[in-house]
Specification:
single chain; 325 residues; mainly beta; nine-stranded parallel sheet; 32 strands; 2% helix
Length: 325
């Protein structure tokens, strides 16, 4: 617990012959007993005069990184963050991960690339020991984000998790990609993403979709998307997708949908109901390069205002439109 560490000093009673050095630490992994060495300096220290050296932290010094702790974690892992801005690039080897804000905290994530890792890490940054992750369930992990803010996040990707929950979060000028694939052909089966009670607001231009989702099953309920070029893009959904009780407002890119169904959707079942579509180019768009035959597309009981096109079929050649009736 780095928040409960008393002020400490380390003295080296030997003149090391120069004015400054870096500290490297040997420590034990969070799983097993394999020792390892950091391969980069975790703290710089200076000669204090005389023959000794005093090691003391710079402002903001952290004795470990969140990325390292999560990479070493297995099983069910919870990360509770205090107020602040965080950036993550993580390979996660555990079974489930919850990233949440502490009570009353204002937690911002500025960059996020999060993978459910499927292979053992090579000898490298942390000199992982062979077999360190034996027995871990990789590729079937779950991840939850609760009450956090994705704030102008330039890299936003959650990949290769079987179950993704985004609950009560805020996307400020952020595009979030959630995918069942690793990007190099590996696909997790029976994937599900649930996005509930989230707010997406964009104040710029040319941003595209707030969410791009490449999962087998989708539950998108009670969310608000405002000011983006487009709303939500659902790709390769061959299971069930429920888009219900959301508000899509001021999505103004021509010939695009607040909700788009795209790519392979053979056998998929889509229900878009009880949503508010206000000042959007089209409420629902079917992408021109989609393939397969969905089991059903139910577009019912939606409130559509200031919108000309209810359903847009983006077929090759002339586009087919239905009015809001």
């Amino acid at each position: 617990d780095r928040n409960n560490v008393p002020t400490s000093y380390i003295y080296i009673n030997k003149d090391l012959g120069s004015s400054s050095h870096d500290l490297r630490v040997e420590y034990f992994s969070l799983v097993g007993t394999d020792s390892m060495h950091s391969t980069f300096p975790i703290q710089h220290f200076w000669k204090d005069g005389g023959s000794g050296y005093e090691i003391y932290p710079d402002p903001g010094f952290k004795p470990y990184s969140i990325e390292s702790a999560l990479r070493l974690s297995t099983g069910d892992v919870a990360l509770t963050l205090d107020s602040g801005t965080y950036s993550f690039v993580i390979d996660f080897f555990g079974d489930s991960l919850t990233i949440q804000s502490s009570e009353g905290a204002d937690v911002h994530i500025s960059d996020l690339v999060l993978h459910a890792a499927r292979t053992l890490p090579s000898e490298g940054d942390w000199r992982m020991k062979t077999g360190l992750y034996d027995g871990c369930t990789t590729g079937n992990a779950e991840v939850t984000f609760k009450d956090v803010i994705f704030d102008k996040a330039s890299q936003t990707a959650i990949r290769y998790f079987s179950d993704v929950m985004i609950d009560g979060c805020t996307l400020n000028d952020t595009r979030l990609e959630i995918s069942k694939t690793t990007g190099d052909g590996m696909v997790v089966d029976n994937s599900l993403v649930t996005i509930v009670d989230c707010v997406s607001v964009y104040g710029g231009s040319n941003v595209g979709y707030s969410y791009t989702i490449n999962m087998e099953n989708v539950n998108f309920t009670g969310n608000t998307i405002t000011g983006y070029d487009r709303g939500i893009n659902i790709q390769n959904c061959t299971g069930a997708a429920l888009i219900q009780g959301n508000t899509f407002r001021d999505l103004t890119e021509a010939n695009e949908g607040a909700v788009q169904i795209a790519d392979a959707f053979n056998g998929g079942s889509f229900t878009i109901r009880d949503n508010v579509f206000d000042n959007v180019q089209s409420a629902l768009a079917i992408h021109e390069n989609s393939s397969g035959t969905p089991e059903a597309v139910n577009f019912i009981e939606n409130n559509i205002t200031n919108t000309d096109v209810g359903v847009l079929y983006k077929t090759d050649g002339d586009k087919m439109r239905t009015d809001v009736s």
